[in-house]
Design a protein that fits this description.
The chain is of the alpha/beta class. The strands form five sheets. Strands 1, 2, 3, 4, 5, 6, 17 and 18 form an eight-stranded mixed beta sheet that branches. Strands 7-16-8-9-12 form a five-stranded parallel beta sheet, with helices on one face. Strands 13-14-15 form a three-stranded antiparallel beta sheet, with no helix packed on it. A hairpin with a 4-residue loop joins strand 5 and strand 6. The longest helix is centred in the C-terminal third of the chain and has 21 residues.
């Protein structure tokens, strides 16, 4: 894949001590907020970022049509009232360049860049139990000693590499949607293949189709998608939000997914067929992923879910002119919403274009990449460009690509061999003093990520302050608390329809990855209450050592 360009302007750099209180890995929205909080605490820290600029997911994912599926007025920080009042979004659903502009605005407004070491990838983190410190190594050959290590590595930041024989023989250009060149790609008049029809592809395909000479889309699994219907933000809409931003933010923090909007209290089966159809049509017309809140039981009741899935399939059949193509695009094998539901800008309409073709790789598997293109089934296709929209090794991929070793040298990969196990998605037993921001076992990807990021960063930094005040040197999730949390997470997940889909939530997109439902589905508000209760009880479920913790243990 093409190399990235350097986006970060020259700034005054802070001193780089070899020993600090905290190492932070990543400078996306989690890392940026952590810098602010750690500065306020007066803790020493270093921040390592593999990219040349801030923004995390929005730094790397620059593919055509990239856009957020959370409404703009809710996809931003809430910690600073002046910041949220001054920033202006242009559309109801912000495009990637604008979100990256926002990340850069925050970095500049709070002078955060001087604390970040760009183009520096963390390669290893080993815990020294005797010293109660982490040794963190980078690809620049440096080693840093830190009491605490905070992994702000993101949930969708490890692009899944394409696995096709003959890939190295292709003479044309290849790109991955998760590592798109920053200077852009000229596809004018070219023969383009897109492999994959997940969220990234669904956003990219309509844009690519308008530019390419011909586009062939290779689909394994069709996806449900709702029109985003993004439109310019009016001054009136913006003013309405900003007039009571704080109140709406607080409500959002205690909802199921961290978004502020009306959620139905009705079952899809409680209303007449006519009324249900009207409600679905209204949601479809408004657009966006709030379609799934049309009724309260779409995620837990198969019969209710069937009504929504059938409605979307009927919309696809109305939009797509070729009946055979429409049937290929209409998902039938899993409940709607159990794979991340997509929000698109003319995706299904794109298949009505004369320069677009859909190939079902279930019927015509991709056998190999050739010098001129690829072979699917018995047909050879010629291409100038192949775009791999093959997704991510979600939630665990970035962490497991780092050589992380905890107490006794146990690797995180071994500890998670049967799937990720955490307490609250924040820590893993056997890995003291290592926190994860929006890790597996927390709401993360099932929520408005900005809400979940702020909640986790606040909790972790409050915890660091509490530990410092008591002289506590080591904190570790107990195995008992971790097992109980994993059991609870599984119990809640299997009360829903989510585990019935072979989704990346389950790790099903990665061959050999354990099938475990990774995010916590119990709700953002419920999860916040649990985290707050744990903290209020002196960090119940965690083993503490050093300082006041040792004195209390001796007294007992």
């Amino acid at each position: 894949m093409d190399a990235q360009t350097n986006d970060a302007p020259a700034v005054r750099q802070e001193a780089r001590p070899a020993q600090v209180d905290v190492v932070v890995v990543g400078a996306g929205f989690s890392g940026l907020y952590l810098i602010l909080k750690l500065r306020k605490l007066g803790l020493s820290f270093r921040v390592f970022e593999a990219g040349s600029g801030v923004g995390g997911t929005w730094y790397w994912n620059r593919y055509p049509g990239a856009r957020c599926d959370v409404e703009s007025m809710q996809y931003s920080y809430s910690f600073d009232e002046d910041l949220q009042q001054e920033w202006k979004w242009s559309e109801t659903f912000a495009p990637q360049p604008e979100i990256l502009d926002y990340a850069n605005h925050v970095a500049d407004r709070f002078d955060l860049r001087r604390s970040i070491e760009f183009e520096t990838r963390v390669t290893a983190a080993h815990y020294d139990a005797a010293a109660r410190r982490w040794r963190v190594e980078t690809d620049r050959g440096e080693a840093v000693s830190a009491r605490f290590c905070i992994m702000a590595t993101g949930c969708l930041s490890a692009p899944r590499a394409p696995e096709f024989p003959g890939l190295e023989s292709f003479r044309g250009e290849t790109y991955h949607t998760g590592a798109w060149p920053h200077e852009g790609v000229d596809l004018s008049g070219k023969r383009v293949a897109v492999i994959g029809t997940g969220s990234s592809a669904i956003q990219a395909i309509p844009v690519i189709a308008k530019e390419a000479g011909h586009l062939t889309v290779f689909q394994r699994t069709p996806n449900y998608s709702i029109p985003a219907r993004t439109k310019p933000l009016t001054p009136e809409y913006e003013a309405e939000w900003k007039s009571n931003y704080a109140e709406r933010r607080e409500i959002a923090r205690h909802t199921a997914v961290g978004n502020y909007y009306d959620r139905s209290k009705l079952s899809a089966l409680d209303v007449s067929d006519e009324e249900r159809e009207r409600i679905f049509k209204d949601r479809w017309a408004v657009g966006g992923t709030r379609f799934m809140t049309a009724f309260k039981d779409l995620a837990v009741n198969q019969a209710a879910n069937d009504t929504a899935a059938d409605f979307v399939r009927r919309q696809i059949r109305e939009i797509v002119k070729d009946p055979a193509t429409a049937e290929l695009l209409a998902a039938k094998d899993y409940p709607i919403g159990t794979k991340r539901i997509c929000a698109d800008s003319g995706y299904f309409e794109t298949y009505n274009r004369p320069n677009v073709r859909l190939v079902d790789i279930n019927a015509h598997p991709i056998r190999e990449i050739t010098a001129e293109g690829l072979v699917a089934g018995e047909e050879a296709h010629g291409f100038d460009v192949i775009v791999f929209a093959t997704g991510f090794d979600a939630m665990t991929g970035t962490l497991l690509r780092i050589d992380i070793r905890g107490r006794g040298g146990e690797t995180l990969a071994d500890a998670w061999e049967a799937g990720p196990r955490t307490y609250l998605g924040l820590m893993t037993a056997g890995f003291p003093n290592m926190f994860m921001i929006t890790g597996p076992g927390s709401p993360s990807v099932l929520s408005n990520m900005m809400v979940s990021i702020e909640q986790h960063v606040d909790w972790v930094t409050d915890c660091l302050d509490w530990l410092r005040d008591r002289g506590v040197e080591e904190m570790e999730a107990t195995l008992e608390a971790q097992d109980a949390w994993v059991e609870h997470g599984n119990e809640v997940a299997y009360k829903t329809l989510y585990p019935s889909a072979a989704s990346w939530y389950m790790g099903a997109n990665i061959e050999g990855k354990p099938r475990v439902f990774m995010p916590y589905i119990g709700g953002v508000g419920v999860y916040r209450e649990k985290c707050d209760a744990v903290a209020a009880a002196g960090y119940e479920g965690f083993r503490l050592a050093g300082g006041a913790a040792d004195k209390e243990a001796a007294a007992d």
